[in-house]
Write a structure and sequence with these properties.
By secondary structure, the chain is α/β, with parallel strands linked by helices. It has 9 helices and 11 strands. The strands form 2 sheets. It has a 9-stranded mixed β-sheet, with helices on both faces. Strands 2-4 form a two-stranded antiparallel sheet. Strand 8, helix 5 and strand 9 form a beta-alpha-beta unit. The protein starts with a helix and ends with a helix.
Length: 251
């Protein structure tokens, strides 16, 4: 009898300890970094530095609501360039970066929350272009513009292509119209949104060569209970139609 009581008490203590470990420190704060990547993240003033309420976009709205529901504190800064903020999230405990593609080679580098939204990879051409491209191998003969440090540019390089990279993806819309590049490797819907912001329209899709989902990437030192809580709240938002509603409000 005593042994059974002792086992029951020990089990209760273990459950209590487990529950305590699962609680999130109310003072825990995540440092969130993002970039100008319309329509997912963007500075309201269009500049390359903004903080808190001066940042908006599809992903920003989703992430804000997700953290609010989870009851987790955060700070939000939009900075430039992407390479820098990606490195900070990779190296600094308590940091996160969004949005980014969850690729096999990145899987073990972060803890992931998502997906937040889709990001198809496309080759865009001017509306009057006569080019025909059925695969990436055919695209090798053309000048392709891409965004420096982006997953799309990295993918093209691994396929043996040599994209001409720009520090801001919207620069490629102007390059395309000026004849400085033949094709623009970018995301959809992001590329078309950026082009419209630059006064460029009528672009056509020559090739849709990949489909990716965009995520919040958190430093590996972020506690598992924080990651799990955020993922749980995002899943609820998606089930309630909140994520689709935010997406549709920008497109």
């Amino acid at each position: 009898m005593c042994k059974r009581l002792w086992l029951a008490a020990a089990s209760a203590l273990l459950l209590m300890a487990s529950a305590a470990r699962a609680e999130i420190d109310p003072n825990y704060n995540v440092v969130l970094l993002t970039e100008n990547f319309p329509p997912y993240n963007m500075a309201i003033n269009g500049k390359n530095f903004a903080q808190e309420d001066n940042v908006d976009g599809i992903a920003v709205d989703v992430v804000r609501e997700m953290f609010k529901r989870a009851g987790i504190k955060y700070s939000l800064t939009l900075r430039f360039p992407w390479d820098r903020i990606y490195k900070l999230a990779l190296e600094k405990p308590g940091y996160g970066v969004f949005v980014t593609a969850r690729l096999p080679e990145r899987e073990g580098l972060f803890k992931w929350v998502g997906p937040i939204g889709p990001d198809d990879w496309v080759l865009l051409a001017r509306g009057d272009s006569k080019l025909v491209v059925n695969n990436l191998q055919q695209a090798k003969q053309y000048r392709i513009g891409a965004y420096k440090g982006d997953a799309i540019a990295e993918h093209l390089e691994k396929q043996g292509l040599q994209p001409v990279t720009s520090l801001r993806d919207q620069e490629n819309a102007k390059k395309l119209m000026a004849g400085q590049i033949d094709l623009w490797a970018t995301g959809d819907p992001a590329g078309r949104y950026l082009a419209r912001q630059e006064g460029v329209s009528g672009l056509k899709t020559l090739l849709r060569f990949n489909s990716a989902q965009l995520y919040l990437a958190l430093n590996k030192e972020v506690p598992d209970e924080v990651v799990q809580k955020l993922q749980s709240e995002l899943d609820k938002m998606r089930a309630e139609g909140i994520v689709d509603s935010i997406l549709n409000s920008y497109l």
